[in-house]
Every structure is written in structure tokens, then in C-alpha cells.
Amino acid sequence: MRAWLFLLALALGFEAWARMEFGGTFIFNSFNIQSIAIFAVAPLILATGQTFVIISGGIDLSLGFIMGLAAVVAAHTINAVSPGLGLPMGVLVGTIVAVAVAGIPGLINGLLVSRLRVPPFIGTLGMFGVARGVAFLLAGGTTVPISNSFFATIGNGRIFGVPYIILITALFVLVMHYLLSQTRFGQHNYAIGANVQAARRSGINVKSHLLRLYILSALCAGLAGVVYSARFNAGAAQAGEPLLLDCVAAVVIGGASLFGGSGTILGTVAGAFVIAVIQYGLVFVNVEPFWQFISVGIVIIISVLIDQAQRRFSGGRIDE
């Protein structure tokens, strides 16, 4: 709940700043609202997968370049198959191939963490480098343009004034919210994050769950890469590089504990919008964009301190 309250306070703060500085409005401007929502799309899709991982007590540092890898694969595949299959079918095939390829590093991450007991930080950091190198090799070190007008329409078109990519993201978030809050998979995820030994003794197959968990996280990154490619009508290996910090920040700001065992998709949604409002709002009030990194970093630190304080007062585990 604190994430939504902070989002409201942040929006009101920028509203007051905009009225005093420019005599205009920040919140009651439909262009600003849509721009903020579009800013939040890719980080939010990444953050949904990261939410599952952090709730389980892990972290996935490879998501940014898995997203870039998927973006490049989507671009090459759509360009290759569209002339023969047609524009809509080319997009469908390209999306399936890109998301499937993204699942490969997720599978490797899952095997490293669940079977070989490699710490998630180290295993996914290694995959960060591998995915980065493969993505740049496939892209030839450049951005890969996409020749498919149907794909460009998905990325930049609107229905009743609402961009398609916002609707796609909203539907995806609802599905992930249901998966986490209403299914056995989601409940097992909370149990493992809260106490992995107790979860194992209760009959949960922890190894199998962690394997599927990292695959799911990578598939989310794959979808984020496809959405990015649709928005810019091109695939770029570095597409997700600046979004890794944003997706982790969204999860933490949204109330998930880095110790595991707590967090929600709806909280992550609020966290993603907090990041988007900070990034867009600072540009709107004509502040140097480099302050975005400082602001996001401060918000992350404050969120972690609040989480630690809550755990201390509630008697939760705090690692010394």
C-alpha cells in the first residue's frame, strides 16, 4: 500500500512543481499520462518476472540482456519470415521464436541455481555477460531495423486512444497477478521464499520450482524484448541494459522483500509507475536527466530501509 501512497504523493509533488514553474498541469494532461504508461511498459514486464524471483529469495541479473537478445532475435526472425508468410503471421512467428530463445538462458539459470546450487547473484550475473555477448554478435554490433508495417502498428498504434502495447501489458500483468496470487505455483513461491527448508519438508519440489521460476522470468524478458522492438520498430542488443535497475527498483519499491517471502504483482505495478513518474516528471520540469539515476537509487535505498524496519518490528529475520 505504501507504494501506491508514494506514487500519489510523487504525482502531486510534480503537479505542484509544474503549476509553480510553468503554470501548467502535470497530472491532468492525457499526453503525460499516456507517456508515463508507455515509459512503464518494458520495465513492468521485466519486473513481473523479477517479482517471482525476488519473492522466492533470489534475484535475476540477466534479464536486461535476455530482453536485448529477444529483441534482436525478433527483428531477424520477422524480417526473414514476413515475405513468405505475410505480415501478421511473420509477427506471430517472430514473437514465438524470440520468447522461446529467451527461455534458453532462463533454463540455464534455473539449472545453475536449482541443480548446481550456484548462488542466484553469481549464476545470473554470468548469464548477463553471455546473453549480452550473444545478442551483440547476432546484431552485428548495430541496431536491426524491422520491415513489417503490422508490427510497427502494434508498437505505435492505438484503439480508442489507448496504445496497443499498454493493453497488451495490462493483460499480461493480470495473468501474472492471477498466477502469483491464485495458483499453487504462486503459493509455493511464497513458501520457498519464507523458509526453503520448511517448504521442502512440506513436500514442495524446490528444485523443480526454481527451474520453472527462472524460465518464467526469462520468458517475461523475452516478451519485453518483443514489445520494445514493436515500439521502436527495431531490435537492439542493449535494449534492456538500462532497465535492469528499473525492474529491480520497481519490485523493491512495490513492497517485495529482498529477503524473500513477500511481494505482489500489484505492488510491482505501483513501483514501475513510481519509476516512470520520476523519469518522465524530471524531464517535464526541465531537470537534467542524470538526476533520474540519483532519484531512483535514493528511492531504492529508502524502500530497503523501510522493509528492514518492518521486519525488525515484526520479529522477522534480519541477516547481520
UniProtKB/TrEMBL annotation:
Which terms are listed as keywords in the entry?
Cell inner membrane, Cell membrane, Membrane, Transmembrane, Transmembrane helix, Transport
Write out the GO MF terms.
transmembrane transporter activity
Topology versus the membrane? Multi-pass membrane protein
Q: Does the keyword Amino-acid biosynthesis apply?
A: no
The record lists the membrane-crossing segments as 34-55, 62-81, 87-108, 159-180, 210-230, 242-259, 266-284, 290-307
Q: Where in the cell is it found?
A: Cell membrane
Report the protein name in the record: Autoinducer 2 import system permease protein LsrD
